[in-house]
TrEMBL record:
An example Gene Ontology CC term for this record: membrane
Locations listed in the record: Membrane
Protein name as it appears in the record: Transporter
Organism (species): Candidatus Methanofastidiosum methylothiophilum
Keywords: Membrane, Symport, Transmembrane, Transmembrane helix, Transport
TM ranges: 12-30, 42-64, 85-109, 129-155, 175-199, 211-235, 247-273, 298-325, 337-354, 374-396, 416-438
SUPFAM superfamilies attached to this UniProt entry: SNF-like (SSF161070)
InterPro entries according to UniProt: Na/ntran_symport, SNS_sf, YocR/YhdH-like
Statement: the UniProt record of this protein carries the keyword Nucleotidyltransferase: no
Length: 439
């Protein structure tokens, strides 16, 4: 069967941006910025994204398009030996990340509904509300199932009609919602303090911890290190410029994260809340802020709808990595692969759904969800990133040159090559070891 390709360059860009833009941008980036001192963290993050992040993304696109295969098949075709293990790690990471990502995706659905049914009220204690919900096993499993069902539906429909078609509608919707929320946030009385926290850097806040947090966030946010961009790259037609695509997707992802900060910080400061509240910033702090605003129910529903859309277009790419592998390698039809693998990922997500208060399930001294996140984000993604960069920089040099210049000269090719060869692997190694507490 002929392999599907994206219908247009814009369609591909929106799908790839849909993968990158997710809970990482709207939930994780603002709370990390808040917890790491504000503007200085943002600057370090930007620097890392536009050197290492964009380079690894280009490497993934090259590996994907030059083979038109899933991550395992791509490494096998280009070099073989032990390299397909990198692809395997990616497929495993996709499976694992989606299992808990979908649980949090389910929380966003619950919060859209709850915005109208009691969450947004001056008498609601949003901390107990949140803890009560995530500790309710049957409810969290139900919403996890709903989120997985939506993800499976889109992937089941295929690359063009499903992924590209939906991202073309959902990404502009997300952008519009974000703009509306920014206007609301920056016009709140007292918003200025939030904007200055976000934009005035205090360089004494930059520590090695900030650096590690920023680099880890860059990988997670850009969907790098596990072959998601190899898979999406495998559907790109030969007419599209890969350097231009990597630059565009990186820019869009970063712009949305940066803009999300203009919703969160002005709002949080306007209502005198601490920006360093951590992961609860979105699900606990914001609803209590919305409750104090006129029309709070609507603002809250819009915000969680935005978060849901962002999460869905990322979840699709996570499922697609595994589905692409099974359809390429095992010859399964897409429909069967999406359903069977989606169901298996749903099952693996059940302990993550239950581990936040319903049933104590601990692995390595952490709750199950946190342990899965640790395994994927702190071990599999950084390791994958190192090998992908090394592979592009040392093993497939000629192919890399051909793929990046097919649409005209690529003036930064040498810089890109050296980042792949030395800078990126070294920097990622540092996060990896730092993340494991080895130095
Ligand atoms: N980039 C997504 C986010 O920021 O939420 C998460 C993600 C998606 C990570 C796809 C990895 C991936 F392959």
């Amino acid at each position: 069967m002929e392999r599907e390709t994206w219908g247009s360059k814009t369609g591909f860009w929106l799908a790839a941006a849909g993968s990158a833009i997710g809970l990482g941008n709207i939930w994780r980036f603002p709370y990390l910025t808040g917890a790491n001192g504000g503007a200085a963290f943002v600057l370090v993050y930007l620097l890392l994204v536009f050197t290492i992040g964009v380079s690894v993304m280009l490497a993934e696109f090259v590996i994907g398009r030059s083979t038109n295969l899933n991550p395992v098949g791509a490494f096998a075709k280009l070099k073989g030996g032990a390299w397909p293990i990198v692809g395997w790690m990616g497929v495993a990471a996709g499976f694992i990340i989606l299992s808990y990502y979908s649980v949090i995706g389910g929380w966003t659905i619950k919060y859209i509904i709850s915005s109208f049914t009691g969450l947004i009220s001056p008498t609601t204690d949003t901390t107990s509300y949140f803890l009560g919900f995530i500790g309710n096993g049957p409810q969290t499993i139900l919403f996890h199932a709903l989120f997985m069902a939506a993800t499976i539906y889109v992937v089941y429909r295929g690359v063009g009609k499903g992924i590209e078609g939906w991202c073309k509608i959902l990404m502009p919707a997300l952008f519009l919602l974000l703009l509306i929320l920014i206007v609301r946030a920056v016009t709140l009385p007292g918003a200025g303090a939030g904007i200055s926290f976000y934009l005035n850097p205090d360089f004494s806040k930059i520590t090695s911890k900030t650096l590690l947090a920023a680099l880890g966030q860059a990988f997670f946010s850009l969907s790098l290190g596990m072959g998601a961009m190899i898979t999406y790259g495998s559907y790109i037609s030969k007419k599209v410029s890969l350097p231009q695509s990597a630059a565009t997707v990186t820019f869009l992802d970063t712009a949305i994260a940066f803009l999300a900060g203009f919703v969160i910080f002005p709002t949080v400061f306007a209502f005198g809340i601490q920006p360093g509240a951590g992961p609860g910033l979105t699900f606990i702090t914001l609803p209590s802020v919305f409750a104090m605003m006129p029309g709070g129910q609507i603002w809250s529903a819009l915000f969680f709808l935005l978060l849901f859309i962002a999460a869905l277009t990322s979840a699709i790419s996570l499922l697609e990595v595994v589905v692409a592998y099974v359809t390429d390698a095992q010859g399964w039809p897409r429909h069967k692969a999406a359903l069977v693998i989606g169901a298996a990922i749903f099952l693996l997500g059940i302990p993550s759904a239950l581990s936040n208060g319903a049933v104590p399930i601990n692995v390595f001294g952490m709750g199950f969800l946190d342990a899965m996140d640790f395994l994927a984000s702190n071990i599999l993604l950084p390791l994958g990133g190192i090998f992908i960069a090394l592979f592009a920089g040392w093993i497939i040099k000629d192919i890399a040159k051909k793929e990046t210049t097919s649409e005209g000269p690529f003036p930064l090719e040498k810089v890109w090559m050296w980042i792949c060869r030395i800078v990126a692997p070294l920097a990622i190694l540092i996060i990896f070891l730092g993340g494991l507490g080895l130095f």
